[in-house]
Amino acid sequence: LQGIIQAYKSGITLQGNTTSLGRWDYSGSFFFSISAITTIGYGNLSPSTAAGRIFCIMFALFGIPLNLVLLNEIGQLMLLGVQHCACRLEEVFHWQNKASFLMKTCALATGLLLFLLLPPLLFSDKEGWSYEEGFYYSFITLSTIGFGDYVIGMNPDRTYPSWYKNVISLWILFGMAWLALVIKFCINLLE
């Protein structure tokens, strides 16, 4: 039994004894890196050697602060884009407070669509999850809770496209930046 558990952790499935999950190929490694520096930590994949664990610690010590800087910059660029659009609306339509409110509402709706409402459709197609399961995965991932009960690209019965994990990794970075802006906006409203 212990041998079977170790084999599974190494990526070997009981169906044909292959490493079809592609855990440590380029896209799997990139996805692992993103889940480490974003502190999501699904718990389904981890280094198994002492050298790998030490490297992971060093990678995280530098990667987590750099990721926070990156997320802040992405968030600031998103905010700058919203503010620029609001200024243009004020100039064109001579709206003062309405333009800012309209742009914030549009940014919220666009973010909801791109980061929480549309991705579950992709997960339904690629993972076979229901829409609700995909929505749950989206929120749990972007909020960095990362329970690990749903993780993309782990079903040995499915074939995943090579771009899939890379696109999801980028979705995670931009989605986390957007969600951080939403949380910041909610905090400002509460204060």
From TrEMBL:
Any single biological process term in GO: stabilization of membrane potential
GO CC annotations, alphabetized: plasma membrane
Alphabetically ordered keywords of this record: Ion channel, Ion transport, Membrane, Potassium, Transmembrane, Transmembrane helix, Transport
Domain Potassium channel: from-to ranges: 20-78, 114-190
Membrane topology of this protein: Multi-pass membrane protein
Record-linked InterPro entries: 2pore_dom_K_chnl, K_chnl_dom
Coiled-coil stretches: none
Superkingdom per UniProt: Eukaryota
GO molecular function: outward rectifier potassium channel activity; potassium ion leak channel activity
Subcellular compartments: Membrane
Transmembrane segments: 26-45, 52-71, 101-123, 135-153, 168-190
Signal peptide limits: none
Protein family per UniProt: Belongs to the two pore domain potassium channel (TC 1.A.1.8) family.
This protein's name: KCNKH protein
